[in-house]
């Protein structure tokens, strides 16, 4: 059983610093199934399929070459070849949302490919919706984990589910946890932190800016 506390709407958003995409990679050794890489001066032996703390993944490796991936880009490297400028920061998707009704941020988006209006709620632990919304979106919530949620109206039966995708504008996040509450509460779909924690958010002169991280 799980317990979820749906807090009151809180729109005090903190700034998120954008991560730098600069990285230096040097191939120091090549082996069948692994590569010895110097990443930002730190030597690491990575097997095929492994990812370094910096986010570098070895896709393939043999005694002649290594194919690595970083932030969605792939490069083929050979022994003693150093790269840095080869990796450029990919353009990140972003969407701007103006303050709407009630001083809240309302967004048009997609859940599992179906259109839905959502209200941004940084006080909600998870994306949350009523049974009515779940049914209209084709969410198989009754197959989810059964529990209860504490709301302003008391405790309600709830189901914890996993959404295949949630998007706002062109900002897409896959595999987002959500909670479906019994009955018609909440009246709108709440875009909570199970989505917001996977993107970068900021406010610029009252406009909410949501950016994808990759």
From TrEMBL:
CDD domains: retropepsin_like_bacteria. GO terms for molecular function: peptidase activity. GO terms for biological process: proteolysis. Keywords: Hydrolase, Protease. Pfam families: gag-asp_proteas (PF13975). It comes from the Archaea. Gene3D superfamilies: Acid Proteases. This is TIGR02281 family clan AA aspartic protease. It comes from Halorubrum tibetense.
């Amino acid at each position: 059983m799980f317990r979820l506390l749906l807090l009151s709407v809180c729109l005090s958003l903190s700034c998120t610093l954008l991560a730098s995409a600069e990285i230096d990679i040097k191939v120091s050794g090549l082996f069948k199934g692994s590569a010895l890489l110097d990443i930002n001066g730190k030597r690491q032996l990575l097997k095929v399929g492994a990812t370094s703390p910096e986010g570098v993944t070895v896709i393939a490796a043999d005694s002649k070459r290594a194919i690595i991936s970083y932030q969605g880009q792939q490069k083929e490297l050979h022994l003693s070849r150093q790269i840095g400028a080869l990796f450029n920061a990919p353009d990140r998707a972003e969407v701007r949302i103006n303050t709407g009704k009630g001083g809240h941020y309302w967004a048009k988006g997609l859940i599992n490919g179906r259109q839905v209006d959502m209200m941004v709620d940084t006080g909600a632990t998870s994306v949350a919706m009523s049974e009515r919304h779940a049914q209209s979106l084709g969410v198989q919530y009754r197959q989810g984990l059964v529990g209860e949620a504490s709301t302003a109206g008391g405790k309600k039966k709830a189901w914890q589910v996993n959404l295949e995708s949630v998007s706002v504008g062109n900002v897409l996040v896959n595999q987002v946890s959500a909670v479906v509450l019994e009955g018609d509460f909440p009246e709108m779909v709440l875009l909570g932190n199970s989505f917001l924690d996977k993107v970068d958010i900021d406010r610029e002169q009252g406009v909410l800016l949501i950016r994808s991280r990759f």
